[in-house]
Write a structure and sequence with these properties.
With 171 residues, the chain is an alpha/beta fold. The chain contains 8 helices and 5 strands. The chain has helices at residues 14-25, 32-40, 44-51, 53-70, 86-95, 105-112, 126-144, 156-170, and strands spanning 3-7, 28-31, 74-77, 97-102, 147-150. Helix 4 runs parallel beside helix 5 (86-95) and helix 5 (86-95) crosses helix 7 (126-144).
């Protein structure tokens, strides 16, 4: 298999599951947000504040284009907003097997409520913001994904096992 790409809303478990899955399968782990931070030399909240969301989304698209050439045999965790762009959904699907990790709003809130590193959650009431963004993105995540895996009421190890089994069946 070329790559396994984990998409989903912030707090769905992409990085946590991805790290464990990569270790279990002897693959490399790539976090697209971490790669952008390393390349830009600036934290994502600061990048949003200085350059805006559009600039950040352009960086994501550029990174996905480069990953088509330089990333193989990896488990890739992508930022929650990356699949929103149609071009990115196409690029993700050509990069490997795309797995949408999903959870209920309540689960997401319990995981992100104390995390100040998520610029898309700044501003209005956290619950309202999460609910609005989840509704906006759910159909787009499904369009981008080959597979969907629920993370609610499952341990990280259980989610990793399901992703591993399902991606093996995929190809």
């Amino acid at each position: 298999m070329k790559n396994i790409i984990l998409i989903g809303f912030m707090g769905a478990g992409k990085t946590t599951v991805g790290t464990l899955l990569a270790k279990e399968k002897g693959m490399k782990f790539v976090d697209t947000d971490e790669r952008i931070v390393k390349e830009q030399g600036i934290r994502i909240p600061d990048l949003f504040a200085r350059q805006g969301e559009g600039y950040f989304r352009d960086l994501e698209t550029d990174l996905l284009k480069r990953m088509q050439e330089d990333t193989n045999c990896s488990v890739i965790s992508v930022g929650g907003g990356m699949p929103v762009r149609e071009e990115n959904r196409t690029l993700l699907k050509t990069l490997g097997c795309v797995v949408y990790l999903t959870a209920t709003k309540e689960t997401i809130l319990s995981r992100v409520q104390r995390d100040g590193s998520r610029p898309m959650l700044e501003g209005e009431d956290l619950e309202a913001r999460v609910e609005r963004l989840m509704k906006e993105r759910e159909a787009l995540y499904r369009k981008a994904a080959h597979l969907e895996v629920w993370t609610d009421k499952r341990s990280v190890y259980q989610v990793m096992q399901v992703v591993d089994q399902e991606t093996r069946r995929f190809g």
